[in-house]
């Protein structure tokens, strides 16, 4: 559905201003290539923070602490 809306939006842009639509069509692959290092940087930072969180919460997990949301009783 998202791809369909993107296509319809591009078609509307093509009807209203075709040079801008063609520029967007040509520029999109280059912008995607430029964004790859930033996405890798973000993935790396997310992994580092997940590792730090796991290390910091390890003592609590070892002594058996459970989050309130996880320890909610099951309703029958």
Architecture blueprint of SSEs:
Layout: H1 2-16, H2 18-62
Write up this protein.
By secondary structure, the protein is an all-alpha fold. The chain has one domain (2-62). Helices cover 79% and strands 0% of the residues. The chain has 2 helices and no strands. It has helices at 2-16, 18-62. It is elongated, with a radius of gyration of 23 Å. 0% of the residues are buried.
Could you spell the SSE succession in H and E letters?
HH
Q: Work out the count of structural domains.
A: 1
Output the radius of gyration: 23 Å
Please tell me what the overall shape is: elongated
What multimeric state do the chains show?
Answer: single chain
Structural class: mainly alpha
Query: What share of residues is helical?
Result: over 70%
| Distinct helical segment count | 2
Mean pLDDT rating: 88
End-to-end gap: 38 Å
| Record field, number of beta strands | 0
> Low-confidence parts lasting 5 or more residues at pLDDT below 50?
none
Short description:
This protein has helices spanning 2-16, 18-62. It is mostly helical.
Provide key terms for this protein.
single chain, mainly alpha, 2 helices
